[in-house]
Amino acid sequence: MMNATIAKLALQALLGRRRFYLLLAFPVLLIALVSLITALADGDAAFDILPGLGYPLVLPLVAILAASSVLGPEVDDGSIIYLLAKPVSRYGVAISKWVVALAATLTAGALPILVAALITGDSTRAWALFVGALVAGTTYSALFLAISAVTRHAVIASLMFVLIWESLLGNLFTGVAWLSIGQWGLRVGHELSAQLPDPANLTWAILASLVVTAVGVWFAGDRLRSFSLRGED
Amino acid sequence: MTTLVLDSASRWFGNVVAVNDVSLSIGPGVTGLLGPNGAGKTTLMAMMAGFLAPSAGHVTIDGKPVWRNTEIYRQIGLVPERELSFGYLTGRQFVRANADLHRLPDAAAATERILEEVDMVEPAGRRLDTYSKGMRQRVKIAAALVHDPGVLLLDEPFNGVDPRQRMHLMDLLRRLGDEGRTVLFSSHILEEVERLARHIEVVVSGRHAASGDFGAIRRLMTDRPVQYALKSSDNRTLAAALMAQASVRSVSLRGDHLDVQVDDLGSFAVGLPGLAKQHDVTLYELSPSDESLESVFAYLVAR
């Protein structure tokens, strides 16, 4: 299903745009912030940033940028038809693009969380956070790819989801944890280190992550299958 | 030999009907799809290219449906009107990517061959965003042709292309048609279509208005009644003389000028100076008052 040419073009689209520097800015800022607080503050203040800021903000923002870069602009200006007017399965197109977005999300989102967590000390909880970030990053990238395939305002829609649902409501109501991608990741990480919060049921967290990922990518492919051009009429 | 068939195809968006019950059969050779802007050409092209589902009717290539059938793209080369957003690729990389997506056995050779065909070998190493409009158009055609499709669909391929490049593109398309490919291009400029296409399909307001070889279409268009505005030294005398002419359908006095409706363009234009002289009237101004393409199309639809 994976198409190397589509993936290569998606990677070039990702690296060739100015957005890429923004994508790099988030992990750099996160690591810088954590280093600064580790150096200045006593106790574990620096580590608390990671589940509180890294998970619900940096990771999804990186995922939004990655997912919208591989698909968004081409859908917006219609030039995706150059890729779609080919005897290539549209699901294959979606999967190939998702793989690139996933790789970018994990590299610029999950890996920096590991690095930042290692800076704060204790490697067990750092690896636990990393595993959780892998889970959440995977799910986020699939969800945002699906959103990019549906609407021209994918970045805004995705941002609303992250800021309002995951960050704001997630902090206000504990029940939201059951429907929060970041919290699912944390729950999986909790299995490795009890220092991570335990917001929901483990089986639920794993199943929900899998379902959102699979449905997200499938849905993106399905939207591409029905991709329509509207003329000037 | 590939035939593209539209069978009572319609497409509407909400309450707006963009394409209304169009039936066409397009075979090998160059066919022009002519119509004013907003007539539904792009919608028609999108349906033919599998990027729009017909609301009613069928669009098929050699009997196979186009919509939601990715395998059909082995037979279609598509040159959309919209610009390439792959500015970060070189021309060669872009064409090569298209060849790879078709999984051609020797993609590198196919790429070079088609770049040669469209005369783009020399600039192929440069990035697409450095190209002129005509060069981008040729690279798009190369990308659409790299897998040797039976059908080539081009949406407004000459828009914004300078005259020299336009000649070049026309030669290329003519050659492709002569090779036995089914080449269909859309345009809102009659002269353009006339110079290139042997067969013309006219669409106006989403409807199939006329179909035939360009001679027949041209006759339909030039034989229609034409409206002229005429100024002379003595409008009333001239009006009386004009009314006696067989080619003149109506004359009316309008302030300082005459409105003349004429059936046969040729004999009217040739006879007018002699007629004026005969009645000692000096002609000041003769101008067609409805020469716009829209009025030509409007006539075809009303017919």
Structural write-up:
The complex is a heterodimer of chains A (233) and B (303). With 233 residues, chain A is mainly α. Chain A has one domain (4-225). Chain A has helices at 4-15, 19-40, 45-77, 81-84, 90-119, 123-150, 154-172, 181-190, 202-225. Chain A is globular and about 60 Å long. Chain A starts with a helix and ends in an 8-residue tail after the last helix. The mean pLDDT of chain A is 89. Chain B is of the alpha/beta class. Chain B has 2 domains: 4-221, Rossmann fold; 224-302, 2-Layer Sandwich (Alpha-Beta Plaits), CATH 3.30.70. Chain B is built from 10 helices and 14 strands. Chain B has helices at 41-48, 91-101, 107-117, 133-145, 163-178, 190-196, 214-222, 235-243, 265-278, 293-302, and strands at residues 4-13, 16-26, 29-34, 56-61, 64-65, 76-79, 151-154, 182-187, 199-204, 207-213, 226-232, 248-254, 257-262, 283-288. In chain B, the strands form 3 sheets. In chain B, strands 6-7-8-3-9-10 form a 6-stranded mixed sheet, sandwiched between helices. In chain B, strands 2-1-4-5 form a 4-stranded antiparallel sheet, covered by helices on one side. Chains A and B meet through helix 1, helix 3 and helix 4 of A and helix 1 and helix 2 of B. Chain A: This is ABC transporter permease.
